[in-house]
Amino acid sequence: MAYFEVNFEDWRIQGEFAVWELASIMRGIDPHAIHEVSVNENGDSPDLSNEIRAILAAIKDGQLHVGTLRATANDKTTVIAASANAWLRTKGLKHIARQLSTTVHPDDAPISKKNEIVERLRHVWKDVEKDIKRAQDNGLFEEAATPRSGYWYEGAVIAWGKTNGRLRDPAGDGTAILTKALRSGLKGV
């Protein structure tokens, strides 16, 4: 690995990225080394303006969820890592999203068939069926699919839904989601 290549082991553990850091990762340059990389004989750093503009537009459109937001989004605004992973997949950067994924499932994590999860979550997640059908594109597959065809890690499905703003939770503390899920028999939450 060259000194400027993204060290995914370090970045994988981050819960959020500054816009400029995500832009640098998209370019394939470790944000820690961005100022060490020059693109010409004048020693200029790489121009990340296209990537930054795309990220800021995605924040404005609600495609990316922010961590800390100042009065207006700028290159210091932070983006939630799970949201960034899903967005990167939609931009054809699945290889980067895969490298940044932190999903690890214990051998005894509860699993259920897709249709059981859809039925149990339908009342708190309007588009659960559509999101699961699009799982290859939106990042849910990598986060929650099991090696066994048609089965999903239940807790990971709920975590993905919550991270990506899909679950309706009037109290905002997870109580309604967990209560309804447990009443309906959902395991692993």
Summarize the structure.
The protein is mainly α and 189 residues long. Helix content is 45%, strand content 6%.
Structural write-up:
The chain is mainly alpha-helical and 189 residues long. It folds into 2 domains: 8-100, no CATH class; 111-183, no CATH class. Helix content is 45%, strand content 6%. The chain is built from 11 helices and 4 strands; from the N terminus they run H-E-H-H-E-H-H-E-H-H-H-H-E-H-H. The chain has helices at residues 8-12, 19-27, 49-60, 81-90, 94-100, 114-121, 128-133, 135-138, 140-144, 154-163, 175-183, and strands spanning 16-18, 78-80, 111-113, 151-153. A two-stranded antiparallel sheet has the order 1-2. Strands 3-4 form a two-stranded antiparallel sheet. The longest helix has 12 residues, at 49-60. It is elongated. It starts with 7 loop residues before the first helix and ends in a 6-residue tail after the last helix.
| Percent of residues in beta strands | 5-15%
Topology order in helix (H) and strand (E) letters: HEHHEHHEHHHHEHH
Total count of strands: 4
Strand order of the largest sheet: 1-2
Termini Cα gap: 39 Å
Main pleated sheet:
2 strands, antiparallel
Helical fraction equals 40-55%
Structural class of the secondary elements? mainly alpha
Q: What's the number of helices?
A: 11
Total individual domains: 2
Radius of gyration: 18 Å
Assembly type of the shown chains?
single chain
- Overall pLDDT score: 80
Model regions low in confidence, pLDDT < 50 over at least 5 residues: none
What shape does the CA trace take?
elongated
